[in-house]
Each structure stands twice: as structure tokens, then as C-alpha cells.
Design brief:
single chain; 328 residues; alpha/beta; Rossmann fold; 2 domains; five-stranded parallel sheet; three-stranded antiparallel sheet
């Protein structure tokens, strides 16, 4: 019988394991997949600087972190009651300039540490459009709702992105020769500039990544964009805003990542961990009942068994959760 959908077959030449240190940077789609890796207890750090949408902002963030360039008062702008930095997400802003500076410098130190430790670096490009702050001629990571007249918007070219990342990857591999770099394009639709320009932007990102991957044997591509657009291909796989993928779509892409990038043995461990995480989310009606006490005992035994086999995994939060229900 004919297939009634296009199944995107994902083949990769890299694998993720519990021995890896994963760093993920990019659009909010990165947060979604990173959250699932964290739930599975694979060592992962997601967006220390906050969400990053365009390739230039991601590259500049990495370079600033490699160089450990300290944030100074001169790097901040006053926007209403807040002190903001165009290189950082709005969550780093504060009414206290010194608090803002400390949060930003802490993020830079964390990023520097994770870049040196990482074995796998995921970079998710959301859009090829950038906003250049006219006062400094620097591309902003976040515009912080400053007046639109303060910025010039334009689209990067595929060659600009590819050449920028060729220089950046050379630097990264000199510091960390064993690093594997995985590129993906976010399936989130950027419709501010219209549907046609969104497609031009995504095509530009895909062309750029194709050039980058062809230049480095340690650079790879994971087809998140194609899985949603060509495989799932239906509005029921979008959230209510019709822009972001639904949780069902993210789960499907996560499953594709698991099937292609994680070994069967590690996937078996993930299944065991996710059963425990599901049990943690269970809200008991009567915690003191014999039935729930037995359930709690079983979960603690399961955690103990996995922890003994994998002492590097941290189950302290799960143990604390279940122990609160144990009768004295």
C-alpha cells in the first residue's frame, strides 16, 4: 500500500551518549529539545545567554565567550526603568545595573567553561534576518523593544553566514579538537516580515549550513525543519499561534533525534528514566494509602537500581520527591 505521507529518513554520523557534554544554542526550539535531553539526564546546557535567533548573534556570543570579554557599564543601555544589553536576552535586564552586569558576566563565564568541555555543540538557526543597532553598527541579539528607528533590518546571505562560521569553527576546533558541531534550522515560522520572506530566510539558512557541513568533517546537519514541514506537514502539529510547533511535534522530532543520534542501549536507559519522571509528575489523591506507599517504594527501588549502575546521574530531586511521602 502507498504511503500517504513523506517520511524523512534521518541518518547521522555522530552519536550522543551519557559520556558527552552537550551545549545547545539558538532559537526557542533549542529550549524544547534541550529540555527533553535534560529530562533524560544527558549532560546538557541550553542557551546560557538566553534565546538566540540569527546566525550572527550566535557566532558573536560564542566569540565573546571564547575571549571572556567582561561586560562593563558602557555595554549597557537605559530602557525605561531597565538596564539592558543588546547582546543578551531580556531576562538579564535589571533595574540595578550592577546586578545586570553580574548576571551577564556569570553567563559569559558559564559559556566559556561549557565551550571548553563540550563534546557536542548544537546550533539552531531561526532566521537569517538581523537587526543592526545604528548607533554602534552592531547586530543586536535582542532589541529590547527599543524604537524601530534605532535599527536597520536586513537578511544575511548564505555566503556571509558560511564564511563567518568557517572562521568560527576553525577557532573552536583549535581550542576543542574533539568537538562535534550539529546544525539545525528551527521549524518555527518567523512571519513578522511575511510568509514569502520567511521562506527566503529559511532557504538562506539551509544553503549556508550545506556549505559549512561540506567544509568540516566534524560539522553535521539534523533536519528538524524538514521533519515538521515535509513529514508532519499539517497545522495540527502547530501550537495555537500557528507559528510554534506543538508539544506533539516536538516529541516527534525528539523521537527522531533519539532514533538516529542515540544508541539503543542509551535509549533503553532513557526509557527507564522517563518512567521515573512520569511517576514524579503523578499527583496522589491519598499519599498515605497502602497502594501509593507501595508505588513510592517501587519508584525508590527503581531509582536506586539505575543510580547504582550509573553513579554519574543525579537523582537527588526525584529521591527527595518520593521520600516526602514515605511513612515514618
Amino acid at each position: 500500500m502507498a504511503e500517504f505521507r513523506t517520511i524523512v529518513n534521518v541518518e547521522t554520523d555522530f552519536k550522543i551518549s551519557y559520556r558527552d557534554s552537550v551545549l545547545m544554542l539558538g532559537s526557542c526550539f533549542t529550549d524544547n529539545i534541550g529540555q527533553r535531553l535534560a529530562q533524560a539526564k544527558i549532560p546538557v546546557t541550553v542557551n546560557p545567554y538566553g534565546v538566540l535567533f540569527n546566525p550572527e548573534s550566535i557566532a558573536a556570543t560564542i566569540e565573546n565567550s571564547l575571549n571572556i570579554k567582561p561586560i562593563a557599564e558602557s555595554d549597557l543601555l537605559r530602557n525605561g526603568d531597565l538596564w539592558v544589553n543588546l547582546d543578551f536576552h531580556g531576562s538579564f535586564s535589571s533595574t540595578d545595573k550592577y546586578e545586570a552586569i553580574e548576571k551577564m558576566n556569570a553567563a559569559a563565564r558559564l559559556m566559556n567553561k561549557k565551550l571548553s568541555e563540550a563534546t557536542i555543540l548544537f546550533l539552531t538557526f531561526g532566521t537569517a534576518y538581523v537587526y543592526k543597532y545604528l548607533q554602534t553598527n552592531k547586530i543586536a541579539v535582542n532589541c529590547h523593544k527599543l524604537p524601530g528607528t534605532s535599527f536597520q533590518s536586513y537578511m544575511l546571505t548564505a555566503d556571509e553566514i558560511a564564511n563567518r562560521y568557517t572562521r568560527l569553527i576553525d577557532k573552536l576546533l583549535k581550542q576543542n579538537p574533539n568537538l562535534q558541531i550539529v546544525f539545525t534550522v528551527s521549524p518555527i515560522r518567523h512571519l513578522r516580515d511575511g510568509a514569502h520572506r520567511n521562506q527566503l530566510s529559511k532557504a538562506t539558512l539551509l544553503l549556508a549550513i550545506d556549505q559549512i557541513v561540506s567544509r568540516f568533517k566534524q560539522a553535521h546537519y539534523f533536519p528538524s525543519y524538514e521533519i515538521l514541514l515535509d513529514d508532519l506537514r499539517d497545522y495540527r502539529f502547530y501550537d495555537t499561534d500557528m507559528v510554534h510547533p506543538s508539544s506533539l511535534a516536538v516529541d516527534y522530532i525528539w523521537q527522531q533525534l533519539r532514533n538516529s543520534c542515540i544508541s539503543p542501549a542509551n535509549n533503553q536507559l532513557i526509557d527507564e528514566i522517563m518512567k521515573i519522571e512520569t511517576a514524579v509528575s503523578h499527583k496522589p489523591i491519598n499519599p498515605q494509602s497502602a497502594e501509593f506507599q507501595k508505588f513510592t517504594s517501587i519508584q525508590l527501588d527503581c531509582i536506586k537500581k539505575i543510580a547504582q549502575a550509573h553513579p554519574n546521574l543525579d537523582f537527588s530531586a526525584e529521591i527527595k520527591h518520593f521520600e516526602q511521602y514515605v511513612k515514618n
